[in-house]
Amino acid sequence: MEIFKQTNFDFLGKKWPFIIMSLVLTAAGLVSLALKGGPKYGIDFTGGALMDVNFIKRPPAEAIRSALHKRIAGEVEVQEVHEAGHTQEALISTGVRDETVQAVRGDIESALNAAFNADSGGRLDINSATETALVDRLRDPLQRAGVALSDDGLQALAKAIINYRETHSGLIAGLDQLSGVPGVTPQALTVLKQECFPGSYAIRRVDIVGPKIGADLRQQAINVVLIALAAMLVYIAFRFEWIYGVAAVIAVFHDTIITIGLFSIFNKQIDLTVIAALLTLVGYSMNDTIVTFDRIRENLRLQRRGSFSEIVNLSINQTLSRTVLTSGLTFLTAISLFLFGGPVLNGFSFALVVGIIIGTYSSIFIASPILVFWRNLAEGRRKNYRAPAVDSRLRTVPKTVKTAK
After folding, report:
1. pLDDT surpassing 50 at residue 100
2. How far apart are CA 124 and CA 194, in angstroms?
3. Entry pTM
């Protein structure tokens, strides 16, 4: 399928605005990285805890941060989630030391309870209670209230309450909501109100990574990216010529540097999902570049008329439909993930959106001009080459000898 037929755009003639833009983005990213001391790594690489907390009514981020600082030393970040269906959620991240990795969840919960569940009166928080804790708490009070339940019946009641809670984003705003749960009779509901209370928040997800594991993951991620670039350089140099491999790797390295720089400029964290996105972009951009290079090689074999620059322009125009279709459809998918994927996929989708845009134009305006520059440089060297000068005495034509008549 071709949406552009027999186009004749002068892509190489328009390369300088894109090259200048790349230089500006690269410089801005490197300056941002230098000022911030490098990329902002997530807990996957630095070690720490990330907790997704859903509140019945979310307090201000500063109130959450202040409450955590009373119990937890070091940097604490609180990010409010402003998305449909997540209006009361907050992402809490904090660094941890080796000796506190196992206790970090307890520290965060204690800080949140002290600040936002202070009036519990010794009752059980039904929004954080496990099934076992609920059974143990209700067994004796239910018997005293005359609610006859066997152990199996009590476990079924606790399980029904937990299931109801999980189907309501992990939160029960008021205990009267449980009146419709199977097994919750008016007597049982009265006991629940005496023994339990609806906490102001529920923990939806907790990720904890130790500092040593994070450092190992960071080094492995760097090694994987470098190995991928080296392997692609070898492959393209073998399939085409070494300069094709160099041009392709420079373009891909350019894409990676700009993407990481934009993460620094927008203060976004780099975690394992972002590394996965970067590796995806390395392969995507490299594939796009190889398609263009392959068409250049075919046109050279056909010995088309014109300079090398004209052949490169022709090849880019011939692959334009393929580039627009693949890049456009992939971009639509990536932008959908970015807009609707939620906070967990935000870094991954941001890397894809940025990488697809940069990777598409780098194949045309970065990799191809490098080939043209090298070919022109090589041809200039050949033209400047001259055969050794011949001694002028050897070039002297002998005078004609007249013969006697």
Report:
1. yes
2. 10
3. 0.69
